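Title: Prediction job returns without error message
Component: structure pipeline
Severity: low
Priority: P3
Assignee: unassigned

Description:
Job completed but the reporter wants confirmation the result is attached to the right record. Sequence as submitted:
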Amino acid sequence: MRIVIKVGTSTLTHATGKLNIRRVEKLCKVMSDLKNAGHELILVSSGAIAMGVGKMNLTRKPDDVPTKQALAAVGQCELMYVYDKLFSEYHHTVAQLLLTGSDVEDSQRHMNFQNTLFRLLQLGALPIVNENDTVATAEIAVGDNDTLGAIVAVNVRAELLVLMSDIEGLYTADPRKDPSAELIPEVRELTPELLALAGDAGSELGTGGMVTKLRAAGMCMEAGCDMIITNGVRPEDLYRIAEGEAVGTRFVGNKEARCNR
């Protein structure tokens, strides 16, 4: 199975912005094991700006774009160093791709981006994708690696996109405010009622939220790719997901579109 795994800032770091070492080590171990089992994996990783915050010993994420860009430059180095070190321990080679909106919108650059990803998979590498926050101010303003994950999944014709976040999945209401909220295990159609369930952005260091996740789900479902939202605190759940077990909320892709891909 070809799986794109997107990890959010809240999964990778503590609230301080410092790396959550235990969780990231477990994530890399599980992903390495899934690759050993024959799955093709692509990691879409947030966290560069947040890790820059921690690296520079700042108390909070800044508001101005130049400082965000500077912190992204610092944090991306740290992020890739950690991934390279941990995946190398399990004999897997990582490759970094930093994308901007132009890489997707421009036809020639889009084709180059696709060709590079396919070739990396053929070579057995593990591509790690992030927005190029150091130079792309529009991407920093949007801060939307959920959509980036969907773009990658659709372009590599993945069977599944997994969004690892700080919430178990899509609920009937905000579970942080409503204790009676219930997890929705499966979604086959994004109705206006479901879209209305989306709230605001999540953690202070992250920039996502359910709005971006539902947008990503729509892109995947239309292309015939399934998508799952699950809690990133349990990287071992990726085993269950790869085996087809019910975890989090699964958005079922259009089967007809999948057959035509």
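Comment from assignee: result matches the submitted record. The first strand starts at residue 2 and ends at 7.
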